[in-house]
Amino acid sequence: MAAQQAAGTPATLVVGVPALPSPRSGKAVAPDLTDGGTAHGGLVDSDWEPVLAAIGSASSVDLVCHVLPDGDALGSALAAGIALRSLGIEVRVSFGDDPQIVPASLGFLPAQDLLVPASAVPDRPELLITFDVADVRRLGLLQAKAEAAETLVVIDHHASNGGFGTHLLIDPAAPATAVLVDELLRRLGVPLDVSIATCLYTGVATDTGSFRYSATTPATHELASRLLATGVRHDLISRRLWDTQSFGYLKVLAAALDRAVLDPEAADGLGLVWTWVPWADLVAHGVLPEEIEGLIDVVRKASEAEATLVLKEDPDGSLRGSSRAKGAVDVAAACGALGGGGHAYAAGFTSHDPVAETVARFRAALRAG
Ligand SMILES: [Mn+2]
Predict the structure, then answer these.
(1) Is 232 found in the same domain as 258?
(2) Residue 89 contacts residue 63 (beta carbons within 8 Å)
(3) Which region among 183-192, 210-219, 226-235 has the lowest average model confidence (pLDDT)?
(4) What is the structure's pLDDT at 342?
(5) Where residue 62 sits, what CATH number does that domain have?
(6) From ligand 1's centre to the CA of 263, what distance in Å?
(7) Per the CB 3.0–4.6 Å rule, which of 90, 158, 267, 359 could disulfide with 60?
């Protein structure tokens, strides 16, 4: 017979690994783990009703997400687009990049015929809804049009969202904007179909790191269950989102890993691992800048370092810094010292200094929190 556990003692998953910190010990805004995971508990009927009324009376609706869209931003906007179109509403989906390029990793998203360039959005939209846009400046070319809209609805889950619209549906406890779109569709009476579900699944999977991050709750899995029930091909979505890269990317990654430095004394002894990607590497291997956004997720695996920094060179020689932390340091503060910002566990900045000087400044600002 297997060894007995003392009553009430949780099973030990792995022997010889330090205990995990409390899931809520960091500074990240997240729901209380003990509440059963109400994913959108912050919003009430009176928040939704004026938005439903505005959609019901609009002759056309513009659905827009942030520039350089990720799976949550574009998936949310397209899911809403499919749903509103099914109600007979004229919809346009857009984002304010020129040229407007859907990332290759999101090429599978359905209903991209709804996409129009920013120039095709009216100068003064009747009803414009933003998805996953934490700051009005993240609308790029669409900022002025959004600000001129008669009705501007903001649907978002960023804690940093200061609220820039006439109607705010912002829930920092939601793990993805797509979760709020699911609620919107439920209130509109639009059933989930496989196209909508593909968009929403992409959004939720993207922002939860495939259901790994701490904001994932029982309600998140309940939503995933309803999405899978439509027949969505989560296996193919996951392969495209997580497990597909060009060979050129692998070569850029290899060079970045070869260049990585472990600095165990940084962050008051908690450790920093850092590397950088010269623009010439991207050119040499035919890799686009957006393809290396996930490179930091490999570098940050280093168990010896609490903090991770990846510097990505732009054609003009400036450096885009991305940083990550595991809960014991606040990288938003360190990035803030270099003129950037973000979350305690994920933040960034832009530097016009050389690599060594930029790393030195970041290191100096990094403190155990
Ligand atoms: Mn999001």
Answers:
(1) no
(2) no
(3) 210-219
(4) 78
(5) 3.90.1640.10
(6) 32
(7) 90
